[in-house]
Amino acid sequence: MTTQPVHNETVSGNATTTTPSATARKVGYVLSGLFVVFMLFDGIIHILNLQTVKDASAELGLPDSLALTAGVVQLICLALYVIPRTSILGAILLTGYLGGAVLTNLRAEQPLLSTTLFAVYTGIVMWAGLYLRDEKVREIIPVRRA
Fold first, then answer.
1. How far apart are the first and last CA of the chain?
2. Where do transmembrane segments lie in this chain (predicted)?
3. Structural domain boundaries in the chain
């Protein structure tokens, strides 16, 4: 009886790429799932232009009319993230979207740690989930050996 290795390593220079273990994939799917649920909720409330969105937009100095566009763009990028063949493209586009959120909050002088950097925290969860579940992302962003 032979046993299968938990993961395979590929070494290139001083970088190591590993195939995700079953546990890493599960954690990756959980993180990605949490990210998707949050972004789906946020995109939908923007499309519906609920009062909370109107209030937040006013506080940020944005017109209400941008809520629909922002929600549609967000959901399109999210759909690309959810589809395995386009997940990396979706993550890149969502990183840009989240970067815009950081800049908008900075411009409106929102609290740094709780509000402005929330989009950064969200992006970290998004990329961590994708990294843990996708071998191709590990190839693009290898972990370097000390």
1. 36
2. 27-48, 60-81, 88-106, 112-132
3. 30-134
Confidence of residue 24 (pLDDT cuts 50, 70, 90): very high
Q: How far apart are CA 108 and CA 45, in angstroms?
A: 21
Q: Assign 12 a pLDDT band (cuts: 50, 70, 90).
A: low
- Prediction pTM value: 0.85
Q: Other CB atoms closer than 10 Å to residue 56's CB: what's the count? A: 15
What digits encode the pLDDT tens for the residues 100-127? 999 999 999 999 999 999 999 999 999 9
Sheet-wide strand order for 9-12: 9-12, 15-18, 143-144
Whole-angstrom distance, CA of residue 35 vs CA of residue 40: 8
**Calpha distance 15→146 (Å, rounded):** 9
What is the structure's pLDDT at 144? 81
Q: How many Cα neighbours within 13 Å face the side chain of 37?
A: 6
What is the distance between the alpha carbons of residues 54 and 72, in angstroms, rounded to a whole number?
16
Closest CA to 36 of 77, 67, 72, 68: 77
Residue at token pair 């390593």: 9
Q: What is the per-residue pLDDT for 16?
A: 62
